[in-house]
Specification:
Strand 7 and strand 8 form a beta hairpin. Helices cover 53% and strands 13% of the residues. The protein has three domains: 148 residues; 50 residues, SH3 type barrels, CATH 2.30.30; 82 residues, Alpha-Beta Plaits. The protein has a five-stranded antiparallel beta sheet with strand order 4-3-2-1-5. It starts with 11 loop residues before the first helix and ends in a 21-residue tail after the last helix. With 352 residues, it is an alpha+beta fold.
C-alpha cells in the first residue's frame, strides 16, 4: 500500500455511486458557469433570442451530463451485463427525447424571431412560419425515430429501402402536385406578390390576388371572375406586380393627338387643367404632359396621371377621355383623323 486511493479496489456499487456523484457535481458546475459567463455575455446583444437559447439549453445540458453519468455508473456497478445494457438503452432513449424536444423549442424560437425581421427580402416571413415549423417537426420526428432505433440496435435498413421505393412511386404519381406544392412554398418565401396585390401574368391574366395556397393562387378580375392558377405555372411565368414598388399608386397614360398647326402650349395648359380638376387624380405625384412625337396625322401628346389603386385605371381612362373630348370641342382644338392624299395618274388609251 502506498497510501493512494484506488477506486478499483472498492465495491463496484460504491464505485458506481461515486462516479455518479462526480457527474452530478460536473452538471451543477456547468450550470453555474453558464449562469456566470454565457448568460452575462448574451445579455449585451441587441435581441433576447440568444438569452432564450442559452436559458433553454442549460437544463438539457445538465440533465445530459447526469444521464451520461448514470450510464457510466451502471457499467461500473455489479448489475448483470444484460440489465446494465438495457438500462443504458433506456437512458439513451430518454436523452434522445430530451434533445428532440429541446431542438423543437429552440427551432420554434429561431423561426418566430426571424419572422419578425424588417428586411423585405428575408426568407422567414410570418406567412412562411407555419410551413417552416411543420418541416422542423417532420425533420425532428424523423431524426428522433432513427436514433431511437439505433440506440436499441434495431436494423432499419429494410424499412428505409421500403420507404425509399414508396417515396419514388409517390413522387412519380404526384409529380404535378409536388411541383405545385414546392412552388407554393417558394412563392410564400420569395413573396413576388401578396394578398391584395394587382398582378399581370404572361397569359395577360390580370386581377387582384385573393388567396395564396400551397397548390394554387386565386385572382379576381375586374369582371368578378375568379381565376385559379397552379403555382407551378406562376413560378415559371413573368409576373408584373402593379401594386409593387414604393407605393400602390398606379400611373395611367392617356394618348391624345391634335392637328398640325395647333398651339402646343394651349394643348398643354388644357390637358393639365383637366387633370388637376379631376377629383380621382392624385396630386402626388403630380400630373404631367409630354409631347411625344410628330405623328403621321397629328401631334401626339401623353397625359400622365396617377390613381390610388390599379383597378381604377379603366374608370380613369373613361373620365379623362370624356373630359378631353368635351374641352377640345369647346376650345376648338382639332382632334385629327387619319388622312391620305390620293394622286390619280391619267393613262392615255394609246399607251395601253
Amino acid at each position: 500500500m502506498n497510501g493512494s486511493f484506488d477506486l478499483q479496489s472498492i465495491h463496484p456499487d460504491l464505485r458506481a455511486l461515486i462516479w455518479f456523484a462526480i457527474f452530478v457535481a460536473a452538471s451543477l458546475l456547468i450550470r453555474l458557469l453558464t449562469s456566470k459567463t454565457l448568460l452575462r455575455l448574451v445579455r449585451h446583444t441587441k435581441n433576447d433570442l440568444d438569452d432564450r437559447i442559452v436559458a433553454g439549453i442549460r437544463g438539457p445540458v445538465g440533465i445530459t451530463v447526469i444521464l451520461i453519468g448514470a450510464i457510466y455508473a451502471a457499467n461500473q456497478s455489479s448489475l448483470p451485463d444484460n440489465l446494465a445494457l438495457i438500462s443504458g438503452r433506456f437512458i439513451k432513449t430518454l436523452l434522445i427525447a430530451i434533445w428532440a424536444l429541446t431542438t423543437l423549442r429552440i427551432g420554434n424560437m429561431v423561426i418566430v424571431q426571424m419572422g419578425t425581421s424588417q428586411d423585405p427580402y428575408s426568407f422567414f416571413k410570418p406567412r412562411i412560419q407555419p410551413i417552416m415549423l411543420m418541416l422542423l417537426k417532420m425533420l425532428v420526428v424523423g431524426a428522433t425515430t432513427y436514433f431511437i432505433f439505433k440506440a436499441w440496435n434495431a436494423d432499419i435498413s429494410g424499412w428505409l429501402a421500403s420507404a425509399g421505393i414508396i417515396g419514388i412511386a409517390v413522387g412519380f404519381a404526384a409529380k404535378d402536385t409536388l411541383a405545385n406544392l414546392f412552388s407554393g412554398v417558394f412563392i410564400m418565401a420569395d413573396a413576388p406578390y401578396q394578398i391584395g396585390d394587382y398582378i399581370v401574368l404572361d397569359g395577360q391574366e390580370r386581377g387582384r390576388v385573393t388567396h395564396i395556397g400551397l397548390r394554387s393562387t386565386r385572382l379576381l378580375t375586374r369582371e368578378d371572375v375568379e381565376i385559379i392558377v397552379p403555382n407551378a405555372v406562376i413560378s415559371n411565368s413573368k409576373i408584373i406586380n402593379e401594386s409593387g414598388g414604393p407605393y400602390e399608386k398606379f400611373r395611367v397614360r392617356i394618348e391624345v393627338s391634335v392637328a398640325y398647326g395647333s398651339d402646343i402650349d394651349k394643348v398643354r395648359t388644357h390637358l393639365m387643367r383637366i387633370a388637376e380638376s379631376t377629383e380621382e387624380v392624385e396630386k402626388d405625384p403630380f400630373p404631367r404632359v409630354r409631347f411625344r412625337r410628330l405623328g403621321d396625322s397629328g401631334l401626339d401628346f401623353n397625359l400622365l396621371v396617377w390613381v390610388a389603386k390599379p383597378e381604377m385605371r379603366g374608370s380613369m381612362v373613361d373620365v379623362l377621355l370624356s373630359a378631353i373630348y368635351k374641352d377640345f370641342q369647346a376650345s376648338q382644338i382639332e382632334i385629327p383623323y387619319p388622312k391620305r392624299d390620293v394622286y390619280l395618274h391619267h393613262v392615255d388609251d394609246n399607251e395601253t
